[in-house]
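Wait, mind explaining this?

_____
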Amino acid sequence: MVNPALVHLLDINPVEIQNNISKDNFNINEVGIAHNMMHNLEENNIKIFLSLALFDEKEEIIVKSDYNFIYKVDNLEENYKINDEGETVFNATLVKTLLGMSYSTLRGIIFNEFITVDKIIIPIIDPQLILENRIKIT
């Protein structure tokens, strides 16, 4: 079970940022989003890498923002299992909760840091859609 009181955001780190907003390209036509998740079971930590790109009508990037969100989950041991292949499989509700928190925080960062044009609206996205768009890092 996911208890929000047991989830702590420890750190937020920018990885890559592009800001191409101008008065000519402030209409968002498409949103691209993907994630990757890493963990340290001994320390009850989860790192969410979240990549967000906002595109204009010409399919050019207006804003690209890649951030790491580091969480401590006090009851992490209750939210994963080790499968037959030895892989850690996390409770989907926990992952969607962390993705939703990360995306909401990233939207706030983008509004606060990058958006100077009043007409840009960054949509709210169902965390399930973020969950389905995973970046594989080898």
User: Anything to note?
Assistant: The chain has a mean pLDDT of 86. The radius of gyration is 16 Å. The beta strands are 7-19, 30-40, 45-55, 61-73, 80-82, 88-90.
